[in-house]
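WARN retry 2 of 3 for item q-0093 after timeout on previous attempt; input resubmitted unchanged.
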Amino acid sequence: MSKNVLLIDETILRDRTSIHTNIDAKLLYPEIKAVQDMYIHPLLGSALYNKIVADVEASTITGVYKSLLDDYIIDVLIWYVMMQLPVPLTAQYWNRGVQVKQGEGDTALSMDDMQKVSDMYRMRAEWYANRLRLFLVEDNGVNYPEWDDDGNRVDDIHPSRRTFTMPVWLGDCDCPPKGMPVWKEPTKCR
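OK item q-0093 returned
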């Protein structure tokens, strides 16, 4: 589902972060939508994500779904948006191309400094994302049965049930995890 339904609006973002009131909301909305699609959707999986988006769109979100949104999802969404914002707010498309706008007395951040700001917010967002993932793993589909729905479409996104991923196999047994390359024939597995 790629509807233009936002789980938060700019007032929540402004109230809970250091975003200044003079930033135009139309610069914030695309980042909110992109974060929902790129970070929230994979955390929840297609079935749970689509249910929450449909309930928000219909203004019928209640009970455990409202609690999930208010207590977990919004925090993840806010900090991933903050992670994404430095470049789009600094470099904007104008009729003469991409320009960096700077007011009188302002000093533009270097790309290195923008990366440091983005990294700070990434760490915060990942902490909240891990908290959300652990909550859903602990719930195990009891209150949110959609989280266990694997769907039947090839474009369905399945939620990750692992809290951390590591691209390196440390070799604690002879059988590598599914999807890892096999460098030698396995001799035994647990």
